[in-house]
Amino acid sequence: MNTHDADIVARDRALPGLNLLLDAEALLAALRTLPAFDDLCEVSLTYLRYKPGTSCVAGLLLHLGNGGTRRYFAKALTAARFQQSWQHPKRQALVAAGDPRAPLALHDKAVILQHPAFDRGIRYLSLLEDDARLALFGELLPDEPDLHALEWRFLRYKPERRAVIALSRRGVPLGVLRVASKNEYGRILQGSAVGAALGQISLVACKGNGRMLMTRWLEGASLGPEDGGCLAPEMMSAAGVALAKLHQAPFSLPVVQRVEDDIQAMWQVFNTLETILPASAGHFQHLARRIARSLADCTGEAVPIHGDFSADQLIKPADGGPLRIIDWDRCACGNPLADLGSFRARLEMQTIGGLITPRQVSEAMLAFLTGYRSQRTLDIRGLLWYSARALLCLAAEPFRRRVADWPQQIERLLTRVNQRVDEAETLGRSETAMDARVAALCDPLKIGPPLLAALNLPAGYPLPRCRLLRHKPGRRALVEFQLSPSEAVLGKYRHKGMDRHGYQCQLALWQDGFCAPAPVVVPEPLGLLPEWQVWLQEKRDAEPLTALLRPGNPDLARSGTLVGQALAAVQQSGKLNAVAAAKRWRLSDELAVLARGLEKVAGLYPHWQTRLTAMLADCTTLAQALEGDVPGCAHRDFYPDQVMLSRDRPDQLVMLDFDLCCLSYPALDAGNYLAHVRELALRRDQNIDALMLHEQAFTQAWLANSPGISPTSVHQFATLSLARHIFLSTQFAERTHTTTALLEACEQQLRHWLTAHNDREIGL
Asked: Into how many domains does the chain fold?
């Protein structure tokens, strides 16, 4: 039990046994006091449903000393309801008869343990027991020659709701049997009929008076990552095609999932989150309101939808046929974006749990949407909103699955939803002339003639092939113009107007000798296209330094030395200093950026407000100690992505992006570089010191070539820069797992520097 679980127990005094269902070790000890479970070795919770102040239901898998297992479910009740439920005549009759499956009780904790056979919500699971089983199997499979050879096992079991059961003959699967509560069974009937009508599943039998439905076993492999499934592009593209074909089904359905239902689902989760993690409830509420306001605009024709679409609902048949969609229980008529959003949300949830990487999700979604678009059109902005909604609806899942770090996973999920909401809002704002302008930059017929003229190429020169490499809507874009198989030019677009300062800084360096065959070079600036808000530079054949920064790389120290020498050389360029002096960046500017970032982090993590306020105060104190540092030219955005190694000369470095170059503190660049390297190590290797060899070599080389600057200044600037990474980690899906670790690392470093500062103040 973690501290958040303990807080839940402390707040809910109405359920004396709640602590047992939130603490597997305590539950194990309590169950061992019952004679029926004296050989119990382990308890696994398979399901949790919690209604504050009313009840908590947990599905249990009991591991016995003889190697066997048993399924039970435990129900923690109020003391009054426990007495009423325990004294129910049917339960007491089972106890009096000595039935081995009779309910058991932990009286002092008001907890009842029940066997699935006597699940009163599902009711008919007892038909799978003893002699009744043969009669049931004969009814479901009238042509089965050997009923005694049939076996069954639970695939999924949600007490009082539904059970999914595999039927097999001597280990060979035959079918899937669903048994459900009164409220659930109708949806299962309708959904299975739709799945069968579309050729996705095969119905075998229905038994309405037992609320049962059986489908034929589909031999194959699930695409779900949790099942070891394949997210290869061809599979994901096929998944998109399969979903699009469902959405094109030529019929409607009586059950309609309206946008109001989509919104209500979020608020139902909010009710749970408000109880289990109150500190995050405000963040959830803010996100839900933003999403709800925009879902109403995501209108479209209602079509048959799966209702719970994810990779694990897709089976690649063993016979090599097309993908099949299973589990149709939530099928309805609704917005097709609900299915696409659900698919993406489930994948993102698995990145939060560490099962797959954000890059795998991006690649899978690209292929999935490509397949879908080959069959149907798609509203991308609407997809972002529905993805955010679906992910928000999963906020309580880590708690229900009893993940050890469930509070942290919920916080990471809310951060991810925040990113999706920001993306959707940004996309909405950017659906203007800017998009048309970037589109024109990618159109050879439009950009070709002015581009060729700016490059002084002769008339009749072939039009370039255009490729959008990067795009930040409303801000910047980078476009590649392929002029020939061996020659390409890059166009740097800025939405608010062409960036003359960056062009002039790079030109100054080029003219100051940072060109071939020098050991440090910049791409050659080639020209301006003011009317297109673009300036041009050569594309260098070089490898990004970031790709080489791995703990096992023997060149870590060597590359660190090269980068340190290169940065010092660039900062001391006379021509660059003359141009950069037009702009200035003070420590007050640095602190203002940090303050805005930490304020946004506090909005995402309100329970960190005190820590973040203290951190900003400590950073301000640290910055005051740096006011007297040596001034000079600073790149202002120097980190490993801004450095490349020439492929034909691995000892030649290519330096990039001088848009922010100005008069500031050179040590700021060195500290910023170190902070980025540490963040990279933490993100990729879960060890902030994993690239220490590179850091040390970089620092030594830079200091050796930067007179008058102390190592302390560099490392103090690194601490200030690392603090900014706390906010940055909340803005990128692949970084959210580092937020807490970055906060703790910065607090530790600030304590070190401020202790040393205070010691100097008092003369120690």
From this structure: 5
Which residues, 6+ apart, have CB-to-CB distance to 163 below 8 Å? 116, 119, 122, 125, 154, 156, 157, 178, 179, 180
Query: CATH code at 675?
Result: 3.90.1200.10
Give me the phi and psi of 645, to 5 degrees please: -110, 125
Instruction: Give the whole-angstrom CA distance, residue 764 versus residue 761.
Output: 8
Give the pairing of strands 465-472 and 162-169.
unpaired
Q: Are residues 361 and 317 in the same domain?
A: yes
CATH code assigned at 56: 3.30.200
Residues 168 and 35 placed together within one structural domain of the fold: no
Q: Domain check: are 83 and 227 in the same one?
A: no
Rounded to whole angstroms, how far apart are CA atoms 398 and 353? Answer: 9
Nearest CA among 387, 342, 386, 381 for reference residue 243: 342
Q: What is the DSSP string of 461-480?
A: PPPPEEEEEEEETTTEEEEE
CA distance 751 to 558: 32
- Helix H, strand E, coil C: the string for 187-200 is HHHHHHHHHHHCCC
* Predicted TM-score (pTM) of this structure: 0.68
Query: Does residue 517 have a cis peptide bond before it, meaning omega lies within 30 degrees of 0?
Result: yes
E runs forming strands in 621-764: 632-634, 643-646, 653-655, 662-664
- Whether residues 417 and 485 share a domain: the answer is no
Q: What phi and psi, each to the nearest 5 degrees, are found at residue 220? A: 165, -165
Maximum CA pair distance of the chain?
A: 100
pLDDT digits (tens, 9 = 90+) for 568-590: 999 999 999 999 999 999 999 99
Q: What is the pLDDT of residues 270-322, one digit of tens each?
A: 999 999 999 999 899 999 989 988 887 777 789 999 999 999 999 999 999 99
Residue 565: how many CA atoms within 13 Å on its side-chain side?
14
Walking along the chain (764 residues) 10 residues at a time, the average pLDDT comes out as: 94 96 95 93 94 95 92 97 96 94 96 96 89 90 91 95 95 96 95 96 95 96 92 94 96 92 92 93 91 82 95 95 96 96 96 91 91 86 92 97 93 93 74 64 91 90 89 84 92 92 96 95 96 95 93 95 98 96 95 94 85 96 88 96 93 95 97 98 94 98 96 96 94 84 96 77 52
The SS3 of residue 304 is strand
Residue 67's contacts (CB-CB under 8 Å, 6 or more residues apart) are: none
Range of the domain at 731: 545-761
Q: Kindly report, residue by residue over 640-659, the tens digit of the pLDDT.
A: 999 999 998 989 999 999 99
Please state, in angstroms and rounded to a whole number, the distance separating the CA atoms of residues 311 and 211: 28
CA distance 645 to 651: 7
Q: CA 111, 114, 119 angle in degrees (round to 5)?
A: 125
Same-domain check for residues 413 and 466: no
Sequence-distant (≥ 6) Cβ neighbours of residue 278 within 8 angstroms: none
Instruction: For residues 313 and 417, state if they share a domain.
Output: yes
How far is Cα 157 from Cα 180, in angstroms, rounded to an integer?
10
Cβ neighbours of residue 14 closer than 8 Å, sequence gap 6 or more: 53, 54, 78
Which is nearest to 21 in space by CA: 78, 54, 59?
A: 59
d(CA 77, CA 16): 8
Say if residue 641 is in the same domain as residue 712. yes
pLDDT tens-digit readout, 416-473:
999 999 888 876 655 444 457 788 898 899 999 999 999 999 888 999 999 888 887 7
Q: In sequence order, which residues have a C-beta less than 8 Å from that of residue 561 and are 6 or more positions away?
A: 697, 698, 700, 701
Does 425 share its domain with 303? yes
